[in-house]
Specification:
Porin, mainly beta, 14-stranded antiparallel barrel, 3 helices, 327 residues
Length: 327
């Protein structure tokens, strides 16, 4: 699939910046969010010592995501439009394509955290809808709504629902050049944040591209072949979950600055393998104590690794728009 990656990564990164990735989308899913698929991931952060107190931090997680189409529309016709400076403009302005699609997205992530000598099990489950449509000005309007529960095993009976949404537009300016912008809103058990975003992709030669999503990620992409692609850059990461502190339920927050290298290899039209290595020069836990005072657990620099696969179920409406209408 062509350069759909950055525009859809917005869904992941905006939720991530507000430290709510556990109930939202995933940072590394640059080009699959609007494509029907089954996605499976395993991620591991080996034990790393706390910087200013005894003990260490370790993180193991797995993720399963199922995206299936709910509704799709595609029609094409002619509506005479005399605006334009040439016959080419007249023809383009008179051909009207109406396209839209809505997909269901369901996700589950179990996680094991070792904090000092204690082992904690977290669960995150979410369900939501994704949608795209083509506007009259040939922009792609995209949106998402999502509801989630993220809790430790000991606070599941006190679970608080969390919500986030995104709306934005993407403008295709060439085969490998896009610009997008919009607004993300998150309501995560007391952490309520609106976040405007802007991003895009700019080609740098035949195989290289510069990718940006402000305010959260900068990356460089390299197309090694039709089947293999690399990307490397820096970005924000994090998650937020209900957690037991003494006899009360609080929110555990993990935030990180990461430097990443991601490789994706397409084995066939239906199967893609992915692997990623992250350097974590700055990361920390924040947990309120029994007196509701926020405690910051600084963690020494470490690494995080991920392996995963995508099993695709077919082409999305957005892919068809990029290939047939907006190219």
């Amino acid at each position: 699939m062509r350069s759909l990656n950055l525009s859809l990564a917005v869904l992941a990164l905006c939720a991530l910046v507000t430290a709510t990735r556990a109930q939202s989308f995933d940072l590394e899913q640059f080009d699959q969010l609007f494509r029907p698929r089954l996605r499976l991931d395993a991620r591991y952060t080996p034990g790393v010592a706390f910087s200013d107190r005894p003990g260490s931090f370790e993180d193991r997680s797995a993720t399963g995501v199922l995206t299936i189409p709910l509704w799709k529309k595609w029609t094409a016709g002619v509506e005479l439009n005399l605006l334009g400076n040439s016959w080419k403009d007249l023809l383009k302005n008179s051909v009207r394509v109406r396209a839209s699609q809505v997909l269901l997205n369901a996700r589950y992530t179990p996680r094991e955290l070792r904090i000092g000598d204690e082992l904690h099990t977290l669960h995150s489950a979410s369900i939501g809808a994704l949608g795209i449509s083509l506007t009259k000005k040939y922009r792609v309007l995209f949106w998402s709504v999502n509801a989630n529960v993220s809790e430790s095993a000991t606070t599941l009976d006190e679970a608080v629902p969390r919500f986030n949404g995104i709306i934005g537009k993407m403008q295709v300016k060439g085969l490998r050049r896009q610009v997008f912008y919009g607004l993300a809103v998150s309501a995560s058990d007391g952490l309520n944040l609106p976040l405007p975003f802007v991003g895009g992709q700019e080609p740098m030669g035949e195989r290289w591209s510069f990718q940006y999503i402000l305010p959260v990620q900068l990356a460089v992409g390299y197309k090694a072949s039709q089947r293999t692609r690399f990307s490397a850059g820096i970005g924000a990461d994090g998650f937020r979950s209900g957690f037991a502190a003494g006899d009360q339920r609080v929110n555990l927050n993990y935030t990180a600055l990461r430097a990443f290298l991601l490789v994706r290899h397409k084995l066939s039209n239906t199967l893609q393998l992915r692997a990623e290595v992250n350097g974590l020069p700055v990361h920390a836990l924040r947990i309120p104590d029994a007196n509701n005072d926020l405690q910051r657990y600084s963690i020494d620099g470490g690494v995080n690794v991920m392996v995963g696969m995508n099993i695709f179920f077919g082409e999305s409406t957005l892919e068809r728009l990029l290939d047939e209408v907006l190219k």
